[in-house]
Specification:
The protein has 13 helices and 14 strands. The chain has about 400 residues and is α/β, with parallel strands linked by helices. Helix 4 crosses helix 7. It binds pyridoxal-5'-phosphate.
């Protein structure tokens, strides 16, 4: 054999007999078959009949199985981002004439994807008020109910069991965006009390924890439903890289401890923020004044509540003031996302992103803090210093 060929056709099997803390990472688009018999007898839906990289490798299945266990479901599909997990669910389950319900405080790209499906295929989108079960009025055409607990940005916590019960009574599937709970705050597949059909999770946030990987997961229980999602996953060619899976897998052992710490710090921050006169409201499920506090208490008796805390600026402040406040923060970095070690901040004009009247909000300008793993005293000092740039007379409470 020529050296040129030998360099390609080496045995490729390293001496094994080694046990490492982290599992080996498979990088594969092509998977080699032993024979034509093996090639034609395989079936790609059988997960261990490895066919091609897009269908999965031992590395992707390792992470998928761990996420399924974490969420308490049976099956897990991995997608290149949390948003692609959401859009896969919409694409797989909705067709012309179907009705889908989404909360007004949902992660807004979900609604944007549904609007695309509406104009291409004629589905019907209904928006409900997450605090009001009566605003969810499914018709016979209802196929899918989206839930988010707590909701994006304003963090209202819905009565999940009531919504799930009503949707199931009408024969609709229930999909929960479980990114906030991260499968740590509560279990979405607790059959007796809370049984969603699908839990979607942006692994980008808490499971990754590093702000450096994008990935989503779709966990389900029912075999038929999983097969339907799997077919769509396959034809869309949604694959994830082995290296990204390994990064998330490596972060999982610390997930619960990080989440607990971030919840505890966020609750301390919530209490401190309540004493600042610049804010008319502090939005956080553990705050007794927040919408859905009772529902959160029932579902999360452990008291976990993620690292997100939002504030509503008092009406006397203009948008430019809110921008100046965010620009003045030093530890809270201005950036989308959450769940990592570095605290983040983002600002929103709520009336631009909601469809229904927000009767419980005492202002339009909302700033969402995503608490990282820094010390609470440093975080409150950062906010106290940034509030000074507002240059009004209020006394900023000492951290
Ligand atoms: C609640 C929620 N769901 C889903 C996503 C989408 O995740 P990704 O950024 O991985 O697409 C996000 C992202 O911010 C989110 O906040």
């Amino acid at each position: 054999m020529h050296k040129q060929t030998a360099l390609i056709h080496d045995p490729k099997a390293a001496p094994m007999d080694i046990n490492t803390m982290q599992p080996p990472v498979y990088h594969a688009s092509t998977i080699i078959f032993d024979s034509t018999k093996a090639l034609f007898n395989r079936h790609w839906t059988d997960r261990y009949d490895y066919s091609y990289g897009t269908h999965g490798t031992p590395t992707t299945y390792l992470l998928a199985d761990q996420i399924a266990r974490l969420e308490g479901g049976q099956h897990c599909l991995l997608t290149p981002s949390g948003l692609s997990a959401i859009s896969l669910v919409n694409t797989a389950l909705l067709t012309t004439g179907d009705e889908v319900w989404i909360p007004d405080n949902a992660y807004s790209p979900n609604l944007a994807h549904l609007q695309q499906l509406q104009s291409s295929y004629g589905i019907s989108i209904k928006i409900y008020q997450p605090q009001d079960i009566d605003s969810f009025m499914p018709s016979k055409a209802c196929k899918l109910l989206w839930l988010e607990a707590a909701g994006s940005i304003t963090l209202e916590f819905p009565n999940l069991p009531a919504f799930i019960h009503k949707a199931h009574q009408h024969g609709a599937w229930v999909a929960l965006d479980n990114t906030w709970g991260a499968a740590v705050a509560f279990c979405p597949f607790a059959i007796d009390t809370l049984a969603v059909d699908i839990s979607v999770h942006a692994l980008t946030k808490y499971p990754s924890g590093g702000g450096d990987v994008l990935m989503g997961s779709i966990v389900s229980h029912d075999n038929k439903l999983h097969q339907r999602l799997l077919q769509t996953h396959s034809v869309l060619g949604l694959s994830v890289s082995g290296d990204d899976c390994a990064r998330i897998y490596r972060s999982l052992p610390s997930l619960q401890l990080r989440y607990q710490q971030q919840s505890a710090t966020a609750q301390q921050l919530m209490h401190w923020l309540k004493n600042q006169p610049q804010f008319s409201q502090v939005l956080h499920p553990a705050n007794p004044d927040s919408a859905g506090h009772d529902a959160w208490q029932k579902l999360c008796p452990s008291g976990l509540s993620s690292g997100l805390v939002s504030v509503v600026f008092d009406k006397r402040y203009r948008w430019a003031d809110v921008c100046r406040f965010c620009d003045a923060l030093r530890l809270f970095q201005l950036g989308f996302s959450w769940g990592g070690a570095t605290s983040l901040v983002m600002l929103y004009d709520i009336k631009k992103i909601r469809s229904l009247p927000q009767t419980h909000l005492q202002g339009d300008y909302v700033v969402r803090f995503s608490v990282g793993l820094e010390h609470i005293d440093d975080l409150t000092a950062d906010i106290a210093a940034a509030l000074l740039v507002l240059n009004y007379d209020e006394k900023v409470a000492q951290p």
